[in-house]
């Protein structure tokens, strides 16, 4: 199985860590202050360990960016050496908050966080996915009444195939995964986040995903 590092120990990161560990992967959860994160008890999630983010990026085969999108570029650019040669799965959205704390605008209009990360990390294979849904759907796509879509963007075909394999481990059926093309297509899926606050204001924090109807 694959060694996976997850940068970010919030709801998104811990949710992904639990499901990937259950699928048999060795998972390292990378936190800015790892001493504040409780290591899962043995027998509960034996494949999850906790480390600082630099150690996590250095030791993993595949790294997932689950840090806040508005600060991801600065954080990950500082890990360029550690991320060299790795696959970086970016699941974050870079937004500026509106007055109520929900996404109000994009940090990189006319571009995307994924494109910025690829430019800052030229020796890393960046793949964008899972950024068009509530975090709970990332690991339980079958929970929705309508089949969801996981969009995939990236320049490297082999990296996208590896990430598609991880999506299968998270419960995504092959027909639910849509490869949009190169990394520039991530600007389309990142822009979809602007729909989300309107949905949340009307319906609350209910599981959802932006999906293709065919």
The tally of structural domains comes to 1
Shape: globular
SS class: alpha/beta
Roughly what percent helix? Answer: 25-40%
CATH homologous superfamily placement: NAD(P)-binding Rossmann-like Domain
Average pLDDT figure? 93
How many strands, what sense, and barrel or not for the largest sheet?
Answer: 8 strands, mixed
**What's the number of helices?**
9
Characterise the protein shown here.
By secondary structure, the chain is an alpha/beta fold. It has a single domain (3-203), classed as NAD(P)-binding Rossmann-like Domain (Rossmann fold, 3-Layer(aba) Sandwich), CATH 3.40.50.720. The chain is 33% helix and 21% strand. The chain is built from 9 helices and 10 strands. The protein has helices at residues 11-22, 53-59, 69-77, 80-83, 113-120, 135-138, 157-169, 186-191, 196-203, and strands at residues 3-7, 26-31, 48-52, 62-65, 87-90, 95-97, 103-106, 125-128, 150-154, 177-181. It has an 8-stranded mixed beta sheet, with helices on both faces. Helix 3 packs parallel to helix 5 (113-120). It is globular, with a radius of gyration of 16 Å. The N and C termini lie far apart (34 Å). The mean pLDDT is 93.
